[in-house]
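Follow-up to my earlier ticket, as requested here are the two runs.
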Amino acid sequence: MKEIRDIVEAYKKIDTDAVKVALATVIHVEGSSYRRSGARMLVQDNGLWTGGISGGCLEGDALRKAHYSMARNRVDVVRYDTTKEDEQQIGVGLGCNGIIDVLLSPIDPQDEHNPINMLASCLPERHTNCLLTIINSTDKRYKPGSMLKYSELPAGYFDKEVTADIEQALRSGKSVVRQYAGLHLFIEVLPPAIRVVLFGHGYDVYPLLRIGNELGWEMDVVARPAQITPAMKTLCKQIYDPDKQVPVDEHTAFVLMAHDYKTDKDNLLMALQSEVPYVGMLGPLKRRNEALAELREEGHTFSEAQMARLYNPVGLHIGATGPEEIALAILAEIRAHFSGKEGGFLRSKQGPIHERN
């Protein structure tokens, strides 16, 4: 979501009466690629661009082809095949070895369904969206280059075959391109940014806030007014009072780091009784076990499902020592959790890094 936010902010600053704009979007990848489906680059006809569709190897050519699309005001799909040993082929000799399809969509500022407007509408939302980009269509209802939110469409807007593919994409969490009779469609599953709520106000919250912000995550803190610093205010999206309930969703993580046993114990009970999918707790296993034992003596019980959400000691085992390295380990574990990955060295992984089409 960080790239989308950067693109939306860049677009707001453009005088669209003087500058033409297009959006380049990776819609399909076969084999190896630095970026996956959904990677984007905002292109201006003055040569400026924001975001990226590769590691820097395709942007120049995509920029030129986007200018051509803007000049003709036509949506185009460009295929880059980096598997071929052909000196005339863009991508030959590059590190990737795959096929990348890029959608080039000139942006109509007057179209409320242009991709920039629709992506901007997703930024504040805390649920997974399904975005439908019309690549081409013989049906006048569907304008090439426009983007629709599936949740906002009336029942029966698409036929049963299209609707079934959309529902399957939502279940799998995987974006796909589909070709139907008279309709070429990019079905994109777009989850919100990860949200991390830090229960603590010590000096070690600041590296977490800084790195989290760099990742484009939503970073919140639970602290009393007297504990809130000006720096904390600038780094947080939201600050909650400890006496108030913190809202959660399926993309939220709690990190308990009060460095006070009773506070962490109370927060542990609250977190396990909530629906938050990830609970990280700073400190050794012995301290956690003592807190759980006391809570059980007080009459609380915890299911296997509740305990499976608890990560303690929190963070990946990378040999972290200082606050910054510990923050890196914690955020890496949170990313792994929401990706359904185990962490570890990529060189030990059997097969490709990403699932292949």
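Run two:
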Amino acid sequence: MRVTRRQVLPMLGLALATPALAQPDWPARAIRMVIPYPPGGASDIIARLLQPHLTEMLGQTVVVENRPGANGFIAGELVARAAPDGYTLLMANAGPNGMGPALYGSRTPYDAIRDFSAVMAVSVVPLVLGVHPSVPAANIAELLAHARGGRLSYGTAGIGSAGHMAMELLKSLTGAEITHIPYRGSAPTAADLIAGVIPASVDTAPSLLPHIRAGRVKGVAIFSSPRLTEAPDLAPVSETVPGCEAVSWGGVLVPAATPPAIIARLNAALNQAMAKPEVNDALVRQGIQPQRGSPTAFGSYVQAEVTKWTGVVQRMGLRPD
């Protein structure tokens, strides 16, 4: 049978649009997992804990790649624009994939829903409010009193990060005057907090709990309830300021249009890795609440988070600048 040029072009377009069809033996090469922040934060900790297990289960090396910058948007855009072939994963979190898009709106370099396909939620991470030991406050009420007159500033992993949005929610509910100082990740924020460059910080439990236990930082409160088993002295902010609750979360996303068969295999590998006692226990020790589940459940959760924080941003009249 003679094939005409008119017939060949649509066939070629289909082949280019579905690269995974030409790769039935996925994965056939290394897979990279992109992290939106520098080493040391919760996303990085989780990714590096999962990396050897995913490498073993998938039969190809999983490479953890830190791509910080632009409040996590650089990593998100890189993955959103990558080929949908299962070789580029995003360790997504609440900042650049839930709260940040709500804050930045159309200025976000990707659509938080349409440009990604969900694979699985892996964590819920409590947010901790910590201060330098010199700050005269041991709980949230004392800190709010100390902040009167604009005497307090705080650092976070960046504008639109979970820590930033949690503190802005606190400010909106209390009228507190507290100045935000954005950093490019958790590690540099913690370093300046310990050094006394900034008096306070809101960050994930894995980032601040080790310094609180060592006495380098004083824990004031957490933005979720109930209390953490690993830090029972930290009272939820909502006990003093009703309605003030926020968490960070983590999960794996891939570019939109990634074939369902690849997503299913990634999901199965992640579920198996998270079920391992050494993974689960290591996360729990750091104050991280491990998660497992389906792509559909995680996709619905991300959608709900974007909707929730879009409403918060609109009610509070927040602007990224």
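The only thing I checked on run two: The chain has a mean pLDDT of 91. Let me know what else you need.
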